[in-house]
Amino acid sequence: MALLAPTPPMGWNGWDCYGTTVTEAEVLANARFLAEHLLPTGWDTVVVDIAWYDPTARAHGYNAGAPLALDAHGRQLPAENRFPSAAGGHGFRPLADALHALDLRFGVHVMRGIPRLAVERDLPVHGTTWTARDAADTSSTCAWNPDNYGLDHDHPAAQAYLDGQVAQLAGWGVDLVKVDDMLAPYHSRAIEAWATAIERSGRDIVLSLSPGTHLSTAHLDHLRGRAQMWRISDDLWDRWEDVHAQLTRLARWAPHQRPGAWADADMLPLGRIGIRAERGEDRQSRLTPDEQRTLLTLWVMARSPLMMGGDLPTSDPATVALLANPAVGHVLRTGQDGRELLREDLGDGELVVWSAHAPTTRTRYVAVFWTGSAPRRHALPLASVVGHPPAPATWTVRDLWDLGERPVPHATCPADDDLDLDLPPHGVRWLALDAG
């Protein structure tokens, strides 16, 4: 298989705003906005999340026994009442073509296993004499979604079903597939079967695995050989405690990031979310502006994939401006060796310092996070982030958010000096240090 996702993917996914209910018109509206406003800074992927095959999908949950749209071989089809271009057996091909015409990539979500409805109907597995009942493991179910049974990977019908499912996705032009219920618990054989099916499809498809509840780095080698993205947490929402918890998780995973294999801190619950979502009602993100910058900065410094979860056309302009900041895509794509350097409990909050560096210049990227609920002024010794001689004697300091609210105190800073920083509540100062 060719190396996929050499840099962390950046894009949009409708889960945080539309949950299971997104329509073709809403996908296209977000895709056009992405192409017009964010594609120049690296945002190039659009993902249709869970239950696109359920014509009765609703907000705030899943439908047990739903009349899923399936083909004659038990493979999911887009619900035509939500994706009208799928009519006539076209599947997602017309939507994929529309996104590709915008120079965007197209992704879809599927659940681990095989639809229960296909098993109940005992539909034939494409290209074989087996049926869905041969492929299914009816003892393997998802704790939170009723759509599928697991697959019996001791029976060749299981791999044959997946091969046929991925062949159909490839034929539609899918560039990324997000497979859910894979990591909690860890389904090693299902991961291997998906990797095999993608290889056999002949199409470069990014494999993204979810969720990542309690995911251990002991699985790292297994994941790297088979997937390009894997979640490291459960669903993340617009709560400070969710963002704060990722500081610890990403400190553990960031040193292991490498091209084609990315630990994923989950979607960005920014902008307008909750329109018809699983949790909460229609709202602009409850994260404060400083918390939003903390989230984006941490994800970028740790080189996590970025998937915007809010409805782009109706999100507030300030959120769009954060996403469009050229530093976001540039540091995500080019930063190296992102890691936590310092974590100190100061009583009223934690001071957490991260660094990364540019591969072809003498630029260092520094993020100074403050988890306290009140502002704090802190003097950070520059040597604690750039090291000691033979490091350059002076550094030019740039604020990568560059919002004009809290200017950097020194245009240039001697290597033996301090960075005097005003740190906002739950906020960050994100700096580029250029060798002087």
From TrEMBL:
GO process terms (BP): carbohydrate metabolic process
Reactions catalysed: Hydrolysis of terminal, non-reducing alpha-D-galactose residues in alpha-D-galactosides, including galactose oligosaccharides, galactomannans and galactolipids
SUPFAM superfamilies: (Trans)glycosidases
Key words of the record: Disulfide bond, Glycosidase, Hydrolase
E.C. no: 3.2.1.22
InterPro entries: Aldolase_TIM, GH, Glyco_hydro_27, Glyco_hydro_b
Pfam families the UniProt entry points to: Melibiase_2
Source species, domain of life: Bacteria
Sample GO molecular function, one term: alpha-galactosidase activity
Family: Belongs to the glycosyl hydrolase 27 family.
Protein name: Alpha-galactosidase
Organism annotation: Cellulomonas cellasea
Source organism phylogeny: Bacteria, Bacillati, Actinomycetota, Actinomycetes, Micrococcales
